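ERR on first pass: missing label on line 2. Operator R.T. fixed the label and resubmitted. Corrected input:
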Amino acid sequence: MRLFLFFVALAAFLTLAVQSHAQDLREVVTQYRAEIEKPSRQSIGPVIEQIAATGPQGAALLQAWGDRALGLRKSDGLMVIVGESDSQTDAVTGAELPTEDVTMLRPNSGVRGLIAAALAGNALSDPDRARRAQALDALARRGDASQLALLRDALDDPDPGLAARKARLERLLTIQHDPDPAARIAAIESFGGDTGLDFRASLNPILATRRVALETVPADANIAAELTPGGAMSRADAYAMLVAADLAPAQMTPQAERAVLAQHINQGMVGGVPLAQLGHEDARDRAWTALEQQGLVQPAASEAEVDAALARFRFLDLYVEPNADVTDAARAALRGTQTRIGFMQAADLSLDALSLASIYFLAAIGLAITFGVMRVINMAHGEFIMMGAYTGYVVQQFIANRTLSLIVALPLAFIVTFAAGVALERLVIRHLYKRPLETLLATFGVSIALQQLAKNIFGTQARPLTAPGWLDGALTFNDVVSISYIRIAIFVLALVFLALYLVIMNRTRLGLEVRAVTQNPGMAASMGISPDRMNMLTFGLGSGIAGIAGVAIGLFAQVTSEIGQQYIVQSFMTVVVGGVGNIWGTLAGAALIGFFQKGIEWLNPANTLAAQTYMILFIIIFIQFRPRGIIAAKGRAAVGA
Amino acid sequence: MRKPLVLRHPSILIFLAVLAVFTVAVTILSAGYGTGVISTSMVKTLGKTLCLALAAVAMDLVWGYAGILSLGQMAFFALGGYMIGMWLMVARTEGIVAASLANMPIPPTQAEITQATATQIFGVVGADSFPAIWSFAGSLPAQLALVVLVPGLLALVFGWLAFRSRVNGVYLSILTQAMTLALALYLFQNDSGLRGNNGLSGLQNIPGLDGVGQEKLSVWFLWASAIALGLGYLLIAWVASGKFGSVTRAIRDDEARVRFLGYSVEGYKLVVFTLAAIITAVAGALYYPQAGIINPAELAPIASIYLAVWVAIGGRGRLYGAAIGAVFVSLLSSWFTGGRAPAIDLGIYTINWVDWWQVLLGLSFVLVTLFAPKGIAGLIRK
Amino acid sequence: MKIFTSACAVAAVLAGLTGAAVAQDDTIKIGVLHSLSGTMAISETTLKDTVLMMVEQQNAKGGILGKKIEAVVVDPASDWPLFAEKARELISVNGVDAIFGCWTSVSRKSVLPVIEELNGLMFYPVQYEGEESSKNVIYTGAAPNQQAIPAVDYMAEELGVEKWALLGTDYVYPRTTNNILDAYLKGKGVAEGDIFVNYTPFGHSDWSKIVADVVALGADGKKVGVVSTINGDANIGFYKELAAAGVSADDIPVMAFSVGEEELAGLDTANLVGHLAAWNYFETADTPENKAFIEEWKKFTKDDKRVTNDPMEATMIGFNAWVAAVEKAGSTETDAVLDAIVGVEVPNLTGGTAKVLPNHHLTKPVLIGEIREDGQFDIVSQTEEVAGDAWTDFLPESAKLDADWPGKKCGMWNTETNACVQVQSNY
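pass 2 clean. output:
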């Protein structure tokens, strides 16, 4: 079928091509004016071919059309090409024109794809490297047999990268479009165990199947699999197939039974059964049997008849591709890639999980200080993350250069949230060190006030915080395993903070004093350390880190007043699961939660919400068994909470 | 011979008297049974507020008396609502479906009615059959029992696990918050069997009472809510005043010491936690038929925190304080956010209360925690 | 203990305030039931302003039936039960003759029982999942056959999409729309395995796995297209991740049903260029009516940057249809207006007219737009007006249902048994 369509298309193309030599561009444009103004991918193909065939000006017109630089002059409807800096030329003659108002034509991307494909054949040997690369892209998206020939003529390329791509594309197109099975098999085998998406995309169409029910199987059928009713295919499905193909009578459904009964109401009775009784299945069956005996209704297909019908037919999956050697080769090649793809998918999933873990870690690390070390429950921690993100947004409003704005935003976010943290500690938390539950509620009050303030200032709509250009894109190992640079950056940032935390806590005087104050404030005070000052600084530090995390999170997600809410519960979970008071615990907690969540997502890809539900459920149960977390603090530090 | 409970604690009597006066006053002023000064929607608001007050009193039992800051109380509240809502939906829809099928030439079978009812209820989430959890939804007594049983069991199991492993303090608060979050996320799923984000709606139409207008029904529900609040208040006051109450308060003040004295701390906490959950569920079951709709947003963590906020502002450890807090703050909230509070024009900036009420609430909450830890009730006591 | 009495006093004062609003008879009142606070405020506030603008314009023309129109604005605060409460208040206390309101399906379902009980009249201006036709609601937004189905047709025919990823936020609109699309695509011969469905929570931000899944769909060698019913903010993370994965609109086009001018206004659109959206209106529509509307809007809001969008056009059409119906009926009484409104035709902003159909839906043209760098849309396709279908033809249970209010007095008419399934709506 596919082959047939292809020949029809080819024939149509050839006839058009022959005709169009006689036509010049003006005739074609005049003839197809309406189609060009409102093109549809379904019908515009031949028009594009004709324009392309008229010569270089036709190609220029197509190029402009594809780039949405083709317009109609408002004054007289003349078709013009609008160049850079609004210069205008006649689309048909190429003559320079004075600038006037034009209505631009807006071909949709399907049409633009066809235009690109039509231009691709010639552009393959274009002196401009970018043009050649574009042409290859267009061919990779929709190549056909005619372009295979053009590609084979243009395989040589001064650029080694493009030459390799051309060679690869040539083999891929050979697999799909070469009429010679041997050439196709050779091309398939030449790829070895390649796992590229494009290679698999070339193989899978060959292995497309259709399901048929046949009484006799033709000898040349290329069978993919035979299905037995009740085995690989349910009996109901198999019989439904026969019914749909009018090969067997339908079984009776309750609705149909009811409808038929309703047609035979006779003096308030159906088959001698009073209507009032027909609210029960057995009464309906009796009525049906009575009607059957009177010959008024056809008996429905019985189970035995269903069995007989199913036994008569063979249910097969047939390859659309008639040549068994080709399908065998394709299947073997695909099977060869499967294990490796499995490993790669696992690797990709692990990268995702690692990235999620690093995001959770980053969101929680500030909390690991305020909650983990100081034992202060700060429900406004999420709002510090939000303040950081909004700081990033505001900085971008003033500094256009994205890299520079990021460099300014990170320390600024730290300063802003450090100050906010110190203020919160001085004004509120200081008075509540003896009453942890009330700290929770008071900071919650601060949290709702801050959230609403953010809404009043910035509005409820998400604000853009855009990453610099060098963080765009992804690190791609192959077609399966890849990770975006922004996530890598967050991962690195998380590592930096881990290191920073360790250095501050273990290698500096500040860290020493913080630890002293946490473990025994009285003794620390008598050694000349001011617990007041220490608490203030520590809380500020934790808050400041939350601010930086906010900038990072805003870069990959959305900046709204509710951004903190999304992370606050997870952050507390991370710290609690990991074990309070130990940064390695927080790390372990983040990793556990990240990997667990991705694991559930993998098991149930259709529902991400379920993954979050089960993750929280898992944490609740986990805490029942390890109430002090993965890495439990020991000794004096473990008391309290 | 000890004096009866109400004489030992005159505040109980005063509370009940005020409640009775309030209910009678609203009835006299209502559109259904009186002058109509108070609109039906206002009667509903007041009735709902009484339910919230009951939930707050129960919250005070767990937090103010037993020292368990549960941030998941609204999970029980909403579960109670869901349980009664299931019956309301099934019974009403079945009535409609049976009436429409009765016009057909052939009377419907029970299976056909059930099938059609399921299609009507679950069509909105793309399903056409009852999930297993709806097995008893056709029976009012069964669902009424479930109003108590489901939240009670959840509290029992959750409490047993948590108290057994000695999770307490802020850890327990976070854990209860996680519980309600998990439940909310679960219910948000379309496949949860409780109509996902859409929830259960049309609950204000009580099956079998089609002839009774909403202006009367709203008063009936106000009465029911008032009675529930009165009874719940009495029950909690009785629990909190006896020996049981003394032990509970002792646990709040020093858990380890009570344990060393040989009391089963876990047992006491479990009883209090479960009892409060059940009372909260009853409050929820009365609340949602007045609200008309329940959906998973109702059990988002923030709702439970608000409940704690009301109790704290009202004054915890005093039951009437919790009730006052709930009534006062929730009515004030709806007044400020309802767009009725006049905007203040400062010349350069206009303060719209819709925008600034949350800020005010948050800050006043901080102030109450810092300067009036006993809340409004504490101020009265002085 | 005095506090009890004062609490009572507060309650009484509140009650008094509610009751004190005595209806005045020299104006015609309409209610505006849109959230002005909470999560939906950003979308709904715009619609409130639109109604106020329409009222101002109508009053400048001399009002209606010789009286001025007065808009009563209330704030249901994105809280679904509050929608029902405020709707009751609007009808029974304020005595409004029509309500313009609601955005989400849940809020509509919350209001429905109240409005049917009190026989009110509401205009609902947002594209929705269909499967409903209430006597008391006029649906001025798109039904699925006026947005989703034509959009999918466009993707199949114009973009050559053969493999479908239906991504949505987990709530009723995406679920129902995707159910309908699933049935529709299968009916067109798309295999089960060629449809990938995923639901994410509101505000979802971790899109890497889902984008990877979508990209992996291309391994079949079929062109992949995404139909997105992802709601609100979550779109931002999704498009960012798509761009990071190097997926361009030419490789995997994304057709969104919930992303319009308003949503794009707060976004860096460089990543989104070429992706698509389907609506019944785009701000870029090149007609004199639209130009005038945009001008009025900017003047009314005193803000040159305010964009217009599809639900605004729907609100405008609803208001004009109501005015026309009231004038035709000579009364603002609900039943008279409902009888008069069917068949009313009002011009829409993209050329052509919107006609109110017996099923209380409208005729609307379907527009497909490609996102431009400046956050506006290039209209690449525009159909003739399509009649809104309350009950979809692509789900077996709904296909046999029909709605005909003036004729059969039924919103759920079973065409097989020729009987009314029920007069009230499902809530």
